[in-house]
Amino acid sequence: MIQGMMAKKIGMSQFIMKTGMMVPITVLEVGPCTVTQIRTKDKDGYEAVQLGFDKTSKGKKKTTKKEKSNKVAVFRYKREVSAESIEGIEIGQHFGVELFSAGEKVNVIGTSKGKGFQGVVRRHGFGGQQRTHGQSDRLRAPGSIGMGTTPGRVFKGKKMPGHMGNRRVTVKNLEVISVEGDKNLMYIKGAIPGAPTGLVVVCKRIQRKAKV
Fold first, then answer.
1. How far is residue 23's CA from residue 13's CA, in Å, rounded to a whole number?
2. In Å, how far are 47, 80, 101, 138 from 5, measured between CA atoms?
3. pTM > 0.85
4. What is the pLDDT of residues 189-208, one digit of tens each?
5. For 36, what's the count of Cα atoms within 13 Å in the CB-facing half-sphere?
6. Number of other CB atoms surrounding residue 184 within 10 Å
7. Confidence band (pLDDT; 50, 70, 90) for 187?
């Protein structure tokens, strides 16, 4: 069985638990995803399944020879996900939100919102400097970034102003609150990276065996 699926972020809302507690949730449209390719150890050196999500018209996207031979629809997104076993999985097979169940923990991978070029105060949480003793323009400055003599350079990895956001982010151990199979909707407790209508990948949490 495959270990993950692609989904579209709908937005955030609230959910009232049976205990009466109100929790924030993120609504996802999970699948349906279609198997477009199967990776095998004999041919590719590893086992995985390529999934297609969000069908698009063939006129807007060129079809490859493999897509024509497989006779599958053209999809806007394609991603590879791991699988416990590829036995019984065929090209053209569909997977829905039923792959997940309420109460289990999942990991969500997405692209965070782009914030553009930002200074150290917003990007790294610097406190800035005091506006005193004639320093009126040092409030959001980073301060000293290196030594004037030995070694006389700025070290790699120094927290500096720069591009913020728009990067791959993984949020782990999120709880699935509810699943609606007829609408392909899944409610996850908490927030996930990305803007509404953005693409995310929902993966089952890997249970690692404890070393004896």
1. 9
2. 16, 9, 13, 48
3. no
4. 999 999 999 999 999 887 66
5. 24
6. 17
7. very high
